């Protein structure tokens, strides 16, 4: 039992490191892609989705909080708060949908998570600005969230076979309990 807990802690550390590396890489390539301000691919969110689906909510929540803390340290407090608010709404949306009796596809979960992330950030920005003006950006962020959700779900789906071959779980945590 202790070996399993140790393995889970080590995997969580590796996932956090991977999320930070992906976040750094994304910040380097985003300007090259010509995306409009505020739009990011969400590469680090692939790691959070993996944690949610294959490790459980506590690990995904921990990664989300650590990821926001890292953003706060490297890009400033405002960016950290926006990351935290978007990440928490995204995680809540994906977790609620994931718990439905008929589970949506990873594509639907990812797109809804991306939309939740954008909405959470826009609401937080409205509070930080003390104005609802930030919400006027919602239509653009919703359209971009659809595209970026597709990218992250496709990336996760492409990575799962390789992760399985490397010995990582690719069977949802709740399904492992039943088998």
From TrEMBL:
InterPro entries recorded: Hpre_diP_synt_I (IPR014535), Hpre_diP_synth_I (IPR010898)
Keyword check for Membrane: yes
Keywords: Membrane, Transmembrane, Transmembrane helix
Residue intervals passing through the bilayer: 41-66, 78-98, 104-128, 140-163
Keyword field contains Transmembrane helix: yes
Gene3D superfamilies on file: 1.10.1760.20
Xref: Pfam families: Hpre_diP_synt_I
Protein name: Gx transporter family protein
Species in which this protein is naturally found: Candidatus Allofournierella merdipullorum
């Amino acid at each position: 039992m202790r070996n399993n807990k140790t393995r889970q802690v080590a995997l969580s550390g590796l996932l956090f490191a991977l999320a930070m590396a992906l976040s750094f890489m994304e910040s380097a390539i985003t300007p090259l892609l010509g995306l409009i301000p505020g739009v990011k691919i969400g590469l680090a969110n692939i790691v959070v989705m993996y944690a949610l689906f294959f490790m459980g909510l506590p690990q995904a929540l921990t990664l989300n909080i650590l990821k926001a803390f890292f953003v706060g340290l490297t890009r400033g407090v405002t960016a950290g708060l926006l990351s935290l608010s978007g990440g928490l709404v995204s995680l809540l949306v994906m977790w609620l949908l994931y718990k439905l009796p008929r589970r949506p596809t990873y594509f639907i979960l990812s797109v809804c998570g991306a939309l939740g992330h954008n909405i959470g950030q826009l609401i937080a920005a409205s509070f930080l600005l003390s104005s609802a003006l930030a919400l006027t950006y919602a239509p653009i962020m919703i359209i971009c969230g659809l595209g970026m959700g597709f990218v992250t779900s496709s990336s996760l789906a492409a990575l799962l076979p390789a992760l399985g071959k490397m010995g990582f779980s690719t069977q949802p945590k709740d399904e492992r309990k039943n088998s």
